[in-house]
Amino acid sequence: xxxxxxxxxxxxxxxxxxxxxxxxxxxxxxxxxxxxxxxxxxxxxxxxxxxxxxxxxxxxxxxxxxxxxxxxxxxxxxxxxxxxxxxxxxxxxxxxxxxxxxxxxxxxxxxxxxxxxxxxxxxxxxxxxxxxxxxxxxxxxxxxxxxxxxxxxxxxxxxxxxxxxxxxxxxxxxxxxxxxxxxxxxxxxxxxxxxxxxxxxxxxxxxxxxxxxxxxxxxxxxxxxxxxxxxxxxxxxxxxxxxxxxxxxxxxxxxxxxx
Length: 259
Known about the structure:
Elements: E1 10-14, H1 18-31, E2 36-41, H2 44-52, E3 60-64, E4 66-67, E5 70-71, H3 74-78, E6 85-89, H4 95-98, E7 103-108, H5 113-129, H6 134-142, E8 152-157, E9 160-165, E10 169-175, E11 178-183, E12 188-191, H7 195-201, E13 207-211, E14 214-217, E15 221-227, E16 231-236, E17 241-245, H8 250-257
């Protein structure tokens, strides 16, 4: 491979475009026929099932950012993925976020042989430089700048300012163009951040985005029931509010609860 000793390894491919997946496999086989590619996994649901009970030891992930049912970054919020990643996408605006997770490289579609060869060479050189010290190898990739999660929010009500401790918040809800923090005291306050931004700064072990409009605190969940069309209905404190977990998030939600 690449004028260097062969790197025998397993790659898992997350890609929802069949032609792109087939193209990538062909390119990998040209670079090194000893590399085994598994997949493709086309959705967060399929990837969640894999990471819940991995059937193979994987050395490297090829991960498309936009999968059939969502953005692949969500997987890092709900699973401990200690595998280096080469991101493959048509969208360059995700580059910074990619390098805040286990990213080795970031390739824009359409992928050509030269770019992929260089990315795999980079991976092999990084691993070679760290030898067989797997813990050091993973630690070097998993360190994230600014990994501390949000502890409190400053809010305004009339002429008054108030701070809210994060664990006082039962859930966040987008309603009529605004985002509200609903407290366990049944009060609510307007939050400046969007739900997408909140996903970045809240502790994913404590908060989960159940649908497009809500992020819930684990401590607020009182009851869970099956619901129509393979969805879930959950009841939240403080007022037993009934809300629905969207179908595409149900399996990831269950995995999150079962950590």
